[in-house]
From TrEMBL:
The keyword Transmembrane applies. It comes from Cajanus cajan. It is a multi-pass membrane protein. Potassium transporter. Belongs to the HAK/KUP transporter (TC 2.A.72.3) family. Its main location: membrane. This is Potassium transporter. Residues 11-505 form the K+ potassium transporter integral membrane domain. It comes from the Eukaryota. The lineage of its organism: Eukaryota, Viridiplantae, Streptophyta, Embryophyta, Tracheophyta. It holds the Pfam family K_trans_C.
């Protein structure tokens, strides 16, 4: 749909606060961190010109050319970020490691892949990835590496932003002790994390004005410093000064690049927030406002440093013009503090979203997710994660007490995330965009070499604070990989031990058990068949409900699944059994919480399925008579249009189940006068009550397993399982209707 010019400009203005708060506050500490080592300033200012040249070309090539012009075009149904790129690859090359993926998932409206024909390069690469499960698992681990660094960014960003802003007060009050600066920073951080449960929508209207004011302030100060201190600073934009810088400074100059890379922190946030706006407003805001303002700010600060070498560690606040810094200092200091707080707020909210996506991909334990806005989708709050992030953030602030050391950790995290994006984009260019391998290799060599250069400089800073990123990444990686390994082993156990259909049907119409009035919802990890939990249940209690529904809640490799495509209902065997399968599908951006009257919606969907099944029974009866089975394998029916979807039919028309996709229209009230016999039985069963049957599994490593595996399963995974949020809490199941079935499985 066409968007008016006014709407685009409005969205571009709003994106300043939500997208560019991270990128725009980098001038607070870039020069300070760059010159924190043994790199010294000489009279000819070659070092300052060289650093400015590196900042300009890094900012231009990586941020403008790579992200704005190329990467932001690789959106997944409007969503951006690492998971969006991974999702595109999974759908186009079948790389997904998620269980229970079915052909019907490919009919989702958001599952569409590129229509262009495959090239021989894309076909060859896709087949290579599909035939090697180890490479698919390695790709997932590589994506998790970038994700763990992004979560670590959620710890480091508030610490360095607030501390860098607050420490500027020492320029005005030089006798102020560092302990007071740390104390004020910690108070602000505690207050910041304490108000997260209110959400960002209450103060979101402040985001864009504050960031816009901040950008205008630093660009205005930059213009003043350029003309006042060194009008010839524009010469530093020549790439020749980069070569001179490396030749003159040698190893020390190379190590200082770990500070230069901080000028592009926030580019991943820009890409990840693509779903909140669209590509065009974000591009307009960057090219017209953010890019020129930041370049002017860096040039002005460099011009000031050419005349004030001694102020390198406080160059940003020292560069503020005015006699004794009085006229302008305090307004800029206040705006800087607010900008740092808003930047931290945006990164914390993004961390909540990342962890929610990891949970959808079975890579993070279940946690409590709270929607903080009834109007804006996707604004969430995770209490446990919030307080853990706060503790880590306070520990870094109090322990390191220096923005230079925190900056070294920050640089390593950001460069790692950028390289993960570059590698995934290389695969997207070939597999999704169907471009030649030469273009993909050129993209990888151009941007990957730049990022590897900065990664190498940041790695050398590991003893000076860079180890913080590695420790945080290691902690989160252990949690994610262990949880993914344990859940996949559980899924494998369920598949290998599910009860066969023939065994169940051999027991007769009632399966040799007592049928009690009511509806039973048995949750399992299987999208088809009888779970092992069901066999364990009926063995100990040979009775189950008159209507039994096997519910499978699963994630699909798409950003979101619409409510009309959420449920897929199918019948288990014959009509006399009164048993159904219901698959509840979510995207990786969806919140898996059923607090919207799920019980009534499910019963309503089953009744619609039954009535639709009866309406198509007559046209299919003649076909079914030849096989002796009155069921059709796959009949796609859209209840809103009551049409037959021939694309869902396969060659084998007569197996044991009839599958229809139910388009839930949101109306839970169904007139009883329209019910047939089975519909009436389902409604009567519901009147007796609905029972939720959930599995309570306990994982154990085999006695022959290695020590590492026993430690991972028996200690780490068991601890996470015991302390994560239970399924009944996630599904909002009333305890009076809950029945748990305990099982132990060995891996």
């Amino acid at each position: 749909k066409r968007t008016s010019c006014a709407t685009v400009l409005t969205l571009a203005y709003q994106s300043l606060g939500a997208v560019y708060g991270d990128l725009s506050t980098s001038p607070l500490y870039v020069y300070k961190t760059t010159f924190s080592g043994k790199l010294s300033l000489k009279e000819d200012d070659e070092e300052i010109f060289g650093v400015l040249s590196f900042i300009f070309w890094t900012f231009t090539i990586v941020t403008l050319f790579k992200y704005v012009f190329i990467v932001m075009s690789a959106d997944d149904n409007g969503e951006g970020g690492t998971f969006a790129l991974y999702s595109l690859l999974c759908r186009n090359a079948r790389l997904s490691t998620l269980p229970n993926q079915q052909p019907t998932d490919e009919k989702l409206s958001t599952y569409a892949t590129e229509d262009s024909a495959d090239t021989w390069q894309s076909s060859l690469l896709r087949l290579f990835l599909e035939k090697h499960p180890g490479i698919r698992k390695g790709l997932l681990v590589f994506v998790l590496l970038g994700t763990c660094m992004a979560i670590g960014d959620g710890v480091i960003t508030p610490a360095i932003s607030v501390l860098a802003a607050v420490s500027g007060v020492k320029v005005k009050i030089s006798e102020l002790h560092d302990n007071y600066v740390i104390m004020v920073s910690c108070v602000i951080l505690v207050g910041l994390f304490s108000i997260q449960h209110h959400g960002t929508h209450r103060v979101a209207f402040l985001f864009a004005p504050v960031v816009a004011t901040w950008l205008l302030c630093i660009s205005g100060i930059g213009v003043y410093n350029i003309f006042y201190w060194n009008p010839k600073i524009y010469r530093a934009l020549s790439p020749v000064y980069m070569v001179k810088f490396i030749k003159t400074t040698g190893i020390e100059g190379w190590l200082s690049l770990g500070g230069v890379v901080l000028s592009i922190t926030g580019v991943e946030t820009m890409f990840a927030n693509l779903g909140h706006f669209s590509a065009l407003p974000i591009k307009i805001a960057f090219t017209c406002i953010v890019y020129p303002c930041l370049i002017l700010a860096y040039m002005g600060e460099a011009a000031f440093l050419t005349r004030h070498h001694e102020d390198i560690q406080r160059s940003f606040y020292k560069a503020i013009p005015g006699k004794n810094l009085k006229p302008v200092f305090w307004p800029v200091f206040i705006v800087a503090t607010f900008a740092a707080i808003l930047r931290s707020q945006a990164v914390i909210s993004a961390t909540f979203s990342i962890i929610s996506q990891c949970h959808a991909l079975n890579c993070f334990p279940s946690v409590k997710i709270i929607h903080t806005s009834t109007r804006i989708y996707g604004q969430i709050y995770i209490p446990e994660v919030n307080w853990i992030l706060m503790c880590f953030c306070l520990a870094i602030t109090i322990g390191l007490r220096d923005t230079n050391m925190i900056g070294h950790a920050y640089g390593l995290a950001i460069t790692t995330i950028m390289f993960v994006t570059t590698f995934l984009m290389t695969l997207v260019i070939v597999i999704v965009w169907k471009q030649g391998i030469i273009k993909a290799i050129t993209f990888l060599l151009l941007f990957g070499s730049i990022e590897l250069l900065y990664i190498s400089a940041c790695i050398c800073k590991v003893p000076e604070g860079g180890w913080i990123s590695l420790v945080l990444c290691f902690i989160f990686m252990c949690i994610m990989y262990t949880w993914n390994y344990g859940t996949m082993k559980k899924q494998q156990f369920d598949v290998e031990n599910k009860v066969s259909m023939n065994r169940m049907l051999s027991m007769g119409p009632s399966l040799g058990m007592v049928r009690v009035p009511g509806v039973g919802l048995m949750y399992s990890n299987l999208a088809s068949g009888f779970p092992a939990m069901f066999g364990h249940f009926v063995t100990n209690l040979p009775a189950f409900h008159q209507v039994l529904v096997f519910v499978c809640v699963k994630s699909v490799q798409v950003p979101r699944v619409s409510e009309t495509e959420r449920l897929v209902i199918s019948r288990v065997s014959s009509k006399e059994l009164g048993m159904f399968h219901c698959i509840v599908r979510y995207g990786y951006m969806d919140i898996q919480q059923e607090k919207y009257n799920f019980e009534n919606k499910l019963i309503s969907a089953i009744i619609q399925f039954v009535e639709s099944e009866e309406s198509i029974a007559e046209p299919t009866r003649e076909l079914s008579a030849n096989d002796g089975n009155s069921n059709v394998e796959e009949l796609g029916v859209s209840l809103s249009q009551n049409t037959f979807d021939e694309s869902c039919c396969e060659e084998n028309l007569f197996p044991s189940s009839c599958v229809l996709q139910v388009m839930v229209n949101g109306d839970d009230h169904i007139e009883k006068s329209f019910y047939k016999d089975e519909s009436m039985q389902i409604m009567k069963a519901k009147e007796f009550g609905v029972t939720y049957i959930l599995g309570h599994s306990l994982a154990r490593a085999n006695n022959s397993s290695s020590f590492l595996k026993k430690f991972a399963i028996d200690i780490v995974f068991a601890f996470l399982s015991k302390n994560c949020r239970e399924s009944d809490a996630v599904l909002d199941v009333p305890h009076t209707s809950l029945l748990e079935v305990g099982m132990t499985y060995y891996v």
